[in-house]
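Contributing new complexes? Match this layout with uridine-5'-diphosphate.
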Amino acid sequence: MKLKYSRILLKFSGEVLMGKADFGWDMSVLQQVAEQVKAIREQGVEVAIVVGGGNVFRGGQVQSKSIQRSTADQMGMMATVMNGLALRDVFESIGLKSRIMSANAVEGVAEGFNANHAQKCLASGEVLVFAGGTGNPFFTTDTAAALRGIEVGADVVLKATKVDGIYDSDPKKNPQAIRFSQLSYSDVIQQNLQVMDLAAFALCRDHAMPIRVFDMLKDGALNRILLGEDEGTLVTTGD
Ligand code: UDP
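Output block (do not edit by hand):
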């Protein structure tokens, strides 16, 4: 069967990896994520991942005059490296070839990101985990996902969240909330829908990079997306 995408950029927030825990990692979630990635790798899909760090540390949390925001953000970027290392090992533990690349190399821990090298690694079947965000303070890992997706020539940015798509109102508060199956970039702006932060969204829009918001922990969701089924919400140019 022909799959809809051959190279994807998956974005997990730290919150997804935290599962029901208050901090850090829920190992059963990491395992579940890895099994889903393995299932699509076995169908030949090339997988690059951008991982957040909010389950460990967010720069904006620091309310101290003694620690500068840019330093706090560097700490946040280090948190994403911790998540990336965990993911890399869980992937390898189930037989996937995997590599971590960080925006800023961490000697002896994670090599630096290089788009050309990354594309070659993806083509050879490695699952790549991009950590360290964009490498710059005042950005988010959503922006890193948009950026890396464009840089490695992914067909789509798949943003994994705890909600299975974009709704017209908060589905946790309103049981009548309706999920959009497809939206255009301008619909998102006009209706002020929360998809990604503005910098990330603008990058995707300007480069016509489709974004799909979905729930990674919903059984088989990733596979259904690859088969072109109605899963989550797809944001495109709308043409
Ligand atoms: N961060 C940053 N620059 C980046 C990406 C991340 O400074 O390009 C820092 C920032 O402090 C952020 C933290 O890393 O709060 C964790 O990233 P993010 O909040 O995006 O993680 P997520 O919410 O996806 O878990």
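Reviewers usually confirm one structural detail per submission. For this one: The helical segments are 14-18, 27-41, 69-93, 115-123, 141-151, 185-190, 198-206, 221-226.
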